[in-house]
Design brief:
2 copies of one chain form a homodimer. Chain A contains 5 helices and 3 strands. By secondary structure, chain A is an alpha+beta fold. Chain A has a single domain, classed as Arc Repressor Mutant, subunit A (Orthogonal Bundle), CATH 1.10.10. The first copy, chain A, has a 3-stranded antiparallel beta sheet. Chain B binds a DNA duplex through helix 3 and helix 4.
Chain lengths: 114, 114
DNA sequence: AGTATATTTGGTAAAATTACCAACCATTGT
DNA sequence: ACAATGGTTGGTAATTTTACCAAATATACT
């Protein structure tokens, strides 16, 4: 792995890392619909305002969202909706994992019968 | 955010988390081409075998790859190539971030002139 | 100016991630 | 049976992430 290659993988991994948190993923997906301000997210998510604000700044630093001050409020906007296209494939993986899980459990159960 | 919703976001975030590391991303992308064994990755990546093995097991636990023992070697196979489709969008984000960066720098430079 | 509302920032403790080494297990070849 | 090769697992230290509280900032309203 060459140096410039490594840097690119780091950059790509950083974008994934920014999205790889339930709260941040939730907010990013919400932003597919429309812009939201911090105070709206506060109503939806059970966490401290400061926590939510920091999560948003992580998304912002990754270049996924941008902020936009409107009066007292700060609205967040999804710059690149395409980054959430992974969802469909992720659901396939989750489903497949659940099937594997239940297969495993039934194997264990049949082993118990002996 | 409801409980079952929360679980789904956690599951999706876990898949992203598994991919959100330069080494794991590199390996996953390599596996788009063909199956690779651990010893092949060891030659490509500057890290301990045990580190590489653990990274692969993280991808495996997330359900992204599966392993397949062939003689002394363990080959890894990409189960769901679609999960790497985010790359194209990620490159757009990276490019856009770089542009913002250079814009910022030129602003700072012109401020220095005053 | 002073208050209320909206948000960010700094500090800090707890938890998770990462990487390496050493030890272990599995398979092949002698 | 023994050595060699390929890989995983356990332990541990360093780093990063996360969440909260408290304090600071910014805007609108009185």
């Amino acid at each position: 792995m060459f140096e410039h290659e490594k840097e690119l993988y780091e950059a790509k991994a950083n974008i994934l890392k920014a999205l790889a948190h339930p709260t941040r993923l939730f907010m990013a997906e919400k932003l597919l619909q429309r812009d939201y301000c911090v105070c709206e997210f506060v109503k939806m998510i059970d966490a401290d305002i400061s926590t939510i604000s920091k999560h948003l700044s992580i998304l912002k630093n990754a270049g996924i969202v941008k902020d936009d001050k409107r009066g007292k409020q700060v609205y967040y906007h999804l710059k690149t909706p395409c980054i959430l296209q992974f969802t469909e494939c992720a659901l396939n993986i989750i489903e497949s994992n659940q099937k594997e899980q239940s297969k495993l459990i039934s194997h264990i159960e049949s082993d118990m019968e002996d």
